[in-house]
Amino acid sequence: MTVALEIRDLVKTYPVRNAFGRVSGEVRAVDGVSFTIPSGGVYGLAGESGSGKSTIARMIMGLTAPDSGDILIDGTSILGTRDRARVQMVFQNPGASLNPRRTVGQSIMVPLVAHRQSGDHTGRIGDLLDMVHLPRHFTDRYPHELSGGQKQRVAIARALAVSPRLLVLDEPTSALDVSVQAKVIDLLEELGRRLGLTYLFISHDLSLMRNFAQTVGVLYLGKIVETGPADQVFERPEHDYTRLLLASVPVISAEEAAMRPVIPLINGEMPTAKDLMALRAGLNAKETAR
Amino acid sequence: MTALLSVQGLSVSFSTYGRTVEVLKAVSLEVPQGAQVALVGESGSGKSVTMKVIMGLLAQPPARIHAGRIMFDGRDLLTLPERERVALRGTAMSMVFQDPMSSLNPVWTIEDQLTTILKYADRRLGRDRDRRGRRARVIEVLAQVRMRDPERVAQSFPIMLSGGMRQRVLIAMALLSEPRLLIADEPGTALDVTTQAQILKLLRDLVETQGLALLMITHNLGVVRETSNYVYVMNKGEIVEEGPTAGLFAAPRQQYTRDLIAAVPRLTGRVTS
Amino acid sequence: MSELAALSNSYQNWYRFSRNPTAVIGLLIVVLSLLAALLAPYITPFPDHVGAIVDFRNRHQPPSLEHWFGTDNVGRDILTRVIFGLRVSLMLAFVVLVIAVPFGTAMGLLAGYFGGWTEIVIMRLTDIALALPPLIMALAVAAVLEPSLMNAMLAIASLWWTWHTRLVYSMVRQIRALEYVEAAETLGASKTHILFREILPNCVSAIAVKTSLDAGFVILIGASLSFLGLGIQPPTPDLGTMVSDGASFLPDYWWESLLPGTAILFVALGFNLLGDGLRDLFDVEDVR
Q1: Is residue B148 included in any domain, yes or no?
Q2: What is the span of the domain harbouring residue B139?
């Protein structure tokens, strides 16, 4: 089993500035994160805002440089290189990730031209549109003429243009209606099988993650607090934060509600993650004191 | 017992670029006293337009209400004179807005914003309250939405508060003048799932303890199940199905509803579609 | 509402533009002025009156059927001279803008995208240039070099580019942070591609609005300069010079000064209305 992507002890800190622009401290957006994704696998990174998941995606894509740590694809480090043909990204908001002034064909052409692929571009664009189940004549359409789901398919086609090994999916369906979401996920699964793609799936939607990811890592304040096969993490969560996340998901059936962990209420309401951890710290302190 | 809010046969069209589109087609729904009702639909279904018409926030033109009645407390809102319609808004019927980031004025403190709203609501209700009375009511309401330190929150500017706290402020804003109907527009969608869970539980508890009626507008079926006992499903401007929540989810009758429920991924891990 | 999305962008834009009466009026005025200027020799009643013709019997004639705008102090037809003067004004505005807009835009793109020293140098240069008043600069240049209208306009062009730099700079900074630019970067696009194919097309609407409004301004400045004596040499007609020459005959022979002045007003107004109309059009588009 080959490892497609390996993340080793990734760290990224940002300075915190006060009102005068003076640096008053720092925040560790990513605090020593490590995980591996086997070739052809789907790894789900679950986290809320401020967890560091977007920062990790940006570092993998080369938009930001990590302070320390390494990112390896197929065993070779990609830090500092400009070659991005092996890993591509599908962004969250399809309306924003496509240039409104370029047609579908022109947008898909961007990576083809950038990586200097020779040969018939029109043909390749047509093939890509076929792959994402869009009609070929969409080449001449502008993004605003497409629906959200269609736009996201174009974004996927564009990401696949230079035949990458690994796709980073940053909340690919969060901006879409749930019925469209299902079709886009189906498409991604089909493409994954056909093209042997590896996926890093970043999302805050746990139900979706359960159905799409094989391995899951739960990210909290820059650290992976729990990881394991999806079934295990969802059915037997160990860390308090994972339990809190699962308990917060609004579900539509009684059996899903039954599998959710029960979280003690604080002051009559669901505690925040911070409160829950503080509670745990307090209990641990009592334990050690005994 | 007549319903608190009753929308009957509402039809609205929208004209732009020289074309006319029917955005609502004979929409009818009811919110009884003290009930928790959800209006669920995907984007473009017309649920936001319905909500705007009920609150009187729809700009006409380019929209045009060409049929239907909206009965609130036995009176048709669409035929009420403007002044009475405005008097209702924010008093008997109030709205919790969707986006906590942009619904609060960044240059005013929370206290300033809430006391001003209360001042105008009182004026509309003909109630007399002095500045101290208003301030006390604002603190009271902030405590109701479970702010840990209502005094400090009142003195803060929106930018100093987290997303969850701002959403609570929006709920407090809606509760100021003791409404009978609360309309919640996708509450918590802009927030993290843990924060959203807190907000939804808060709404549920408030509605119970104060005997309010709740109309929840959402696209998330999970939220529907957690907050409502009756649901209306909207698609392309029409109500396609309605019924008690548990029954509808267990045995949907219409194909659209069935497809919608089937498309929702399950936490238990069954295949999506 | 997806059937509305299928309407092409140009149709939507034209529809909205045509519903704005002042914008359409502005467009009409500009088109008429451009046509008149282009076809000047063919549509004017007395095309030779732009040369060194004098007709003292017909001097100071009021507007009549034969001379719609009357005649000036040496008997030349004012309508003809106004139309040819319009040609001069438009041409000079064109010269200034064709230098200032591309250069200013390029500077703004470089400063906005690359940042660092490029940004600092360009923007400080811009600040300095913006502090100098264009009209005074033009007069100063005239004092040093040969006082011709062309020199004066070049002096104005050398300051005018900075407005466009500032505009494009702020737009580039905004657009640079948008997701589709990030997407292009992750896709491996070259910096040239990102600047000219991703960012610049999204600035075009703002640049178009500003250029249209500028045209009105530059025409006024050109007319002011020639009013002050920096005009093109006689007998070639120039609107500002005509206003100045005719001013000494006010109020008796009012048409000699007022009608060329009205022509200046007319054309500047046209560009202003057009620019405002474009801005209204594009503002709504951005909000969408």
Answers
A1: yes
A2: 103-178
Determine whether domain C20-282 maps to CATH 3.40.50.300. no
Between C239-247 and C204-225, two packed helices, what is the crossing angle to 10 degrees? 30
**What pLDDT, on the 0 to 100 scale, is given for residue C65?**
82
Residue A51: strand, helix, or coil = coil
Q: Which of B194, B224, B259 sits opposite A48 (nearest CB)?
A: B194
Residue B50 lies in a domain: no
Tokens of A43: 């790894």
B160 domain residue, yes or no: yes
Give me B97's structure tokens: 């807005």
Distance, CA of C279 to CA of C230 (rounded, Å): 33
CA distance to partner chain C, nearest, from residue B109 (Å): 28
What digits encode the pLDDT tens for the residues B90-141?
A: 778 888 988 887 888 888 999 999 999 888 888 887 888 888 999 999 999 9
Indicate the number of domains in chain B: 1
Specify if B121 maps to a domain.
Answer: yes
Q: Is C192:C208 a contact under the CB 8 Å cutoff?
A: no
Tens of pLDDT, residues A8-28: 999 999 888 776 777 778 888
Long-range CB pairs of A60-63 (<8 Å, 24+ gap) are: A60/A5, A60/A7, A60/A87, A60/A89, A60/A168, A60/A200, A61/A87, A61/A89, A61/A168, A61/C186, A62/C186, A63/C182, A63/C185, A63/C186
Give the type of residue at C147.
P
Which residues of chain A have a CB within 8 Å of the CB of C187? Answer: 84, 88, 110-111, 114, 158-159, 161-162
CB B37 within 8 A of CB B31: yes
Please name the residues in contact with B136: beta carbons below 8 A apart, sequence gap of 6 or more. Answer: none
Residues of C with CB under 8 A from a CB of B: 1-4, 7, 11-12, 15-16
10 Å CB burial of residue C42 (0-12, 13-18, 19+) is: exposed
Which residue stretches of C115-203 are H helix? 116-131, 134-144, 149-176, 179-186, 191-193
